[in-house]
């Protein structure tokens, strides 16, 4: 059955360059996920939307096995190219139809994914189905905290110029990111925990470049003329505020994870 989800085939060539962790952070990310999810060296974990293995490969160093599903073969090819001896396995499958029997995984991991899964509620039921009793879903994401004023100026100018030409997410809407799991009956198992990733260097010139390259998946379905209008509006806002496009500034980031128990069935 064709999926309306956003497969990341087109992002494979630039995904790690634009979304990767700063060098040396991978062991800390894996340790955070193990702590939050109570994972041990024998845990079997499924990752929904495994992508290039940004999360699964470091995690695989510390647990029994990671089984990942994704719709995008080019993303998973990147994973295979980086893989050494980590016990990470992949399947081309839709998160909304997981090709596994019930109750076979100790935990599930989902990072930056439910907003691109069209059948995200079905996918959540599938995750609950394949978890063994007591198993948790570890939901994690990169957090940028408060937006830098220049980033805010640019994104506001872009959004205002593009308007409705930027279609809504195919999966969970932006304003439900923090609440969708509890809304669907999942219960937090412990507090959210975070690991600081240090400052990411931003500049207006880089932001414009990422817009032009349609780096973010939210831009993939924006028509050419609307994208051009948005980019022109960003340039105009920078000029109006006399901001040098080549100036750079640091934006502190963290990786945040929290575990959830599925709804009682
Ligand atoms: C933003 S990327 C995140 C990748 C990885 N979790 C990470 O954090 O680096 C989202 C991934 O989900 C995949 N994806 C989208 N819809 C999917 C679906 N319905 N089932 C499985 N994977 C899906 C995309 O192809 C892409 O690789």
Key features?
Rossmann fold; binds S-adenosylmethionine; 265 residues; 23% strand; 8 strands; alpha/beta; 9 helices; eight-stranded mixed β-sheet
How large is the radius of gyration?
A: 19 Å
Beta-strand fraction estimate: 15-25%
The CATH class of the domain at 9-144 and 168-198 and 255-261: Alpha Beta
Q: Total number of β-strand segments?
A: 8
CATH topology-level name of the domain at 9-144 and 168-198 and 255-261: Rossmann fold
CATH architecture of the domain at 9-144 and 168-198 and 255-261: 3-Layer(aba) Sandwich
Rounded mean pLDDT score? 96
Q: Name the CATH homologous superfamily of the domain at 9-144 and 168-198 and 255-261.
A: Vaccinia Virus protein VP39
Rounded to the nearest angstrom, the distance between the terminal CA atoms is 27 Å
The helix count comes to 9
Structural class comes to alpha/beta
Principal-axis shape: globular
In sequence order, what are the helices and strands, one letter per element? HHEHEHEEHEHHEEHHE
Specify the helix fraction band: 25-40%
Low-pLDDT sequence parts: none
Report the biggest beta sheet as strand number plus sense, adding barrel if it closes: 8 strands, mixed
Ions, cofactors and other bound molecules: S-adenosylmethionine
